[in-house]
Amino acid sequence: MANMLATSLLAAAVLLALAAPAAVLAGDPDMLQDICVADYKSLKGPLRLNGFPCKRPENVTAKDFFSNAVAIAGNTSNALGSAVTSANVQTLPGLNTLGVSVSRIDFAAWGVNPPHVHPRATEVIFVLEGFLDVGFVTTGNRLYARTVSAGEVFVFPRGLVHYQRNNGRGAAAVLSAFDSQLPGTQSVAEALFGASPPVPTDVLARSFQVDAGLVEDIKSKFPSK
Predict the structure, then answer these.
(1) Phi, psi (degrees; rounded to nearest 5) at 12
(2) Which stretches make up the Cupin type-1 domain (predicted)?
């Protein structure tokens, strides 16, 4: 009996060990040193992790770990009525290898952060002010949506299409946290209608079951970059 128990425990340990790498690879890799501040100026750093060379330790200062970007409200006077201000590894070098980042999203009345995905991170939002209608869609095409208000939290699972909309009761703002130093953002509309080179019109027309003229009209609103 004791031998059977020992065998079962060993088998469980092996299964956990085999599963662990998959869990680690699901997000940013774990770091093997205290810090690796991203060195934007050098393409040939002494150590390169996650695409960024590391500053030499003697050149690192407290400033590398500081940003006041999210303290300032974004300009929402645009077609979407929203503005995203990011503090990720591209703007806050001390985040390199730490696997986290934040953004601030400001909304004018009825402003929208349109459907998009973060391929490398789960996102959790904390509502700073206002009321937002939020939701995400699973791969089974089920929508999970509700209204969240100041002081409340909502989470969007990694890689799923999601959105936020100010429901019109004045300005709104949220603080978003990600479990990636560079979560990436891919807008559904821009990816389909503003890609360069463009996605073929007939592919989009058949996919959305509309005529080619309508697709071309939508494409004109998303000029390729």
Answers:
(1) -65, -40
(2) 77-216
